[in-house]
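Example S7 (structure tokens).
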């Protein structure tokens, strides 16, 4: 029998339901850093994961702000990470050095949470300990060619190659999480910006292979990106993508990220209709034309107030975990958390 990690979402969802609200996820990371620290170098194909090495205080500050904004779950600045990426960017010379950089970046979220918990206790508040999800993106996110938005990976990559990539990166993460500093500190694995059912299948295969090898990572969610309401970027029905993602006990939630807000209601309804697990939703705060590597015009930017209003509707469409992706900020999450607390939205069922 496959031995998998327990899912920590049940107690969090139950507590949020008692308060009549969704679980709040943090917001955008890489684009937040790019907008607020334009002087920082995000070149080299690793985007914010490279910034975490070059300017760690910017990452720590972003974690702090999202925690103070009310996030129940924060994600690490690791979505573009791979051993080969660190080495190609000149940030590491060996796989062991790459492991150390990944561990240090994950540790920034752990340290931020510890400081947040300590500050609550010192202030005499009820102590809330948010969860931490390690963010890992599509293989396309590590190639620097925006292929996570097309699902058409270059460099002659077959689906077997995609499986082997994820297996290797999961093994890298497992080594990091088995260190003294990180053991028992990470709650979830966020597989983000996945463009297709076939990559989701490769991810599930890799997670299960580790379990068969007695290497158990935290429970995962898989979030798809698509500009459509009913299919992946490869044209697969979104329901098939959900079934592929949730076919394994290694996966405890499924949903969408890095999508335009206007597709969310119908897309969520299609996902929630077939998902046996909680649905996570964290769209962009501005329309991103991924295959063109460009943002839409300013008229597509969503204010924190409008984003929060829409998010309460997404809950009605089936989302139990709601946050933000690119072009959302701590202010978006603060406004969302406040709206959720006031609105007492009706959250139900799949946990």
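Recovered sequence:
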């Amino acid at each position: 029998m496959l031995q998998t990690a327990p899912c920590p979402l049940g107690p969090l969802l139950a507590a949020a339901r008692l308060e009549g609200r969704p679980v709040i996820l943090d917001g955008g990371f890489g684009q937040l850093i790019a907008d607020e620290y334009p002087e920082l170098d995000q070149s080299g194909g690793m985007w914010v994961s490279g910034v975490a090495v070059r300017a760690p205080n910017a990452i720590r500050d972003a974690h702090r702000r999202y925690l103070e904004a009310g996030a129940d779950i924060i994600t690490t600045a690791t979505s573009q990470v791979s051993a080969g990426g660190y080495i190609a960017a000149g940030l590491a010379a060996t796989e062991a050095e790459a492991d150390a950089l990944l561990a240090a970046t994950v540790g920034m979220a752990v340290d931020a949470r510890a400081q947040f918990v300590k500050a609550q206790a010192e202030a005499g508040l009820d102590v809330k300990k948010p969860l931490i999800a390690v963010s890992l993106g599509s293989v396309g996110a590590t190639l620097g060619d925006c292929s996570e938005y097309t699902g058409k990976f270059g460099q002659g990559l077959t689906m077997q190659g995609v499986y082997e990539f994820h297996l290797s990166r999961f093994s890298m993460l497992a080594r990091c999480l088995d260190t003294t500093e990180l053991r028992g500190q990470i709650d979830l694995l966020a597989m983000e910006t996945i463009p297709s059912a076939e990559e989701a299948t490769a991810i599930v295969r890799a997670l299960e292979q580790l379990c068969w090898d007695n290497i158990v990572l935290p429970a995962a969610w898989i979030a798809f990106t698509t500009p459509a309401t009913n299919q992946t970027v490869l044209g697969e029905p979104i329901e098939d993508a959900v079934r592929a993602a949730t076919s394994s006990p290694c996966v405890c939630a499924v949903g969408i990220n890095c999508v335009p807000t206007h597709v969310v209601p119908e897309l969520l309804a299609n996902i929630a209709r077939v998902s046996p697990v909680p649905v996570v939703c964290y769209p962009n705060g501005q329309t991103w034309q991924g295959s063109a590597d460009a943002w839409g015009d300013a008229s597509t930017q969503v204010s924190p107030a409008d984003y929060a209003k829409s998010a309460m509707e997404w809950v009605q469409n089936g989302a139990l975990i709601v946050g933000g992706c690119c072009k959302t900020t701590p202010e978006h999450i603060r406004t969302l958390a406040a709206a959720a607390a006031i609105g007492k939205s009706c959250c139900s069922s799949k946990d």
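Notes on this example. The chain has a mean pLDDT of 93.
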